[in-house]
Design brief:
Aspartate Aminotransferase, domain 1; 501 residues; 7-stranded mixed β-sheet; Aspartate Aminotransferase, domain 2; 4-stranded antiparallel β-sheet; alpha/beta; globular; 14 helices
Length: 501
Amino acid sequence: MNTYSNQEELADDLRELLYLANSKIDQLRQFFIFLSSCHDAVMPGTAHMIQGLTNDHIATYKKLAAEISTSLADKKFSSELKRVYANKLRSLAGITGALLTSVDGQSPSALHSQFSEAGAQTGKISATINDYKRDHNIDAENYEHAFRSEYIDAALRIPPNVYTTSSGMAAFTTIVNTLHLDGLLSGPILVGESCYFECKKILEKFCENNIFYFDEMSADALLLKVQELQPSAIFLDTLCNTEAVAVPDTKTIITRLSKELHRPTVLVLDNTGLGISYQAFKDLPLLPSKLNLIVFESLIKYHQFGMDRTPAGIIWTKAISPFGVSGWRMHLGTTLSDSAVLSLPKPSRALLTKRMARMNRNAEYLASVLDAHIKTLTKTPYSHAVYPGLSTYPGAAWTKNLPFHGSYLVLACKSAEPEISLHKTFISVAIDEARRAKINLISGTSFGFDTTRIYLTALHATEVTKPFMRISVGTESWDEIQALAQVLIRAIDRASKQVVF
């Protein structure tokens, strides 16, 4: 019997939103203080104008924070209030980022005779060092420090190198170019069969005929490939974006690679699907080895707390590594912009861990309920639900003890013949059923948001992957996720009747 309290969960959601609001108020107050005493850093008329706008913006946030606080104090919790507050915060975030950088230049001055053109960064700019924000961005560096401190566990407390980028794909292209330009792609390239299709398309063009695929669900198969080919690089997703929702036994893979590699090899991990729940550096042995690790992920998923405000990505490596990420990111122009980074929420491991636990609960519940329902049907095109948290999952031997199994699941089909039409039908009838039940359900891409989404993905990348339909859960409360499960059960029944199989 579950012990979930709908009211307690909604209260947690409001506390998360209150944190997001208050952290932005703190940023804006610091900016207001700067404007009050900026002297020659900003022209007086401009400083006065922006100070007024900042004061108004702080007042808007404070009003919203007061409303959230009152709801918490009065114990007036509802899903509708959660949506209203979250939507307002999301809309304000982009304005905040633009306002906080409004007096700064993208090519800030290092010296000035009368008035600075560095704005809030006056006194922090050094000629030819950080006087061009596309190359070096102080705001991005501040976020990198906060991300490292809050989200990355490093052995022996040696701080890793952290680099923000303009998107998750920009993180990937920065890594690929860095490895190529540093001469680290000099041998065969091993790529997991279920790696993200966008990355596979780039690698296939970039590395031409030097790519060899492997089944990431078999550590033994990978090690045999490594012994045979002695690769210069291995690309692997920690939770894959495919119909199989593959989760490699990464701990075993890293441990064995560290012991068995005979030449320097780079392991590139896309950790977008698992986020802070998986700490790759903790699996890396302390003793020196031939294995070099580089990790990246998209920041538009979990790290924006559902705000879906701005594209952003992040890369991290060991403190001592052969990668010239910083220099090549500068030359490639993939640094995260100042206004974008200041739109991001302040990192909070405690809140993000709680948020991801809710998603894990919701995904596992939906997967188990839908899987059980499918198995009661005699005439259905579906065979089962695929989710790494289920006991029937092929990799359950190593996923069962993971703290997080991802926030999305897949409904597998018995046959490949009707899949595309079936997926489109299911999405249509699911939205219709949700509308009838007055439940919010979205047909749209990505994952990690507040509201559950269903969508057909990889439809235009059939040369490298198989299209599939994904259900990306939100942070719905216990009552909501139970109601949504019934909506999806009815959608399965309707889709099963409408599609010939």
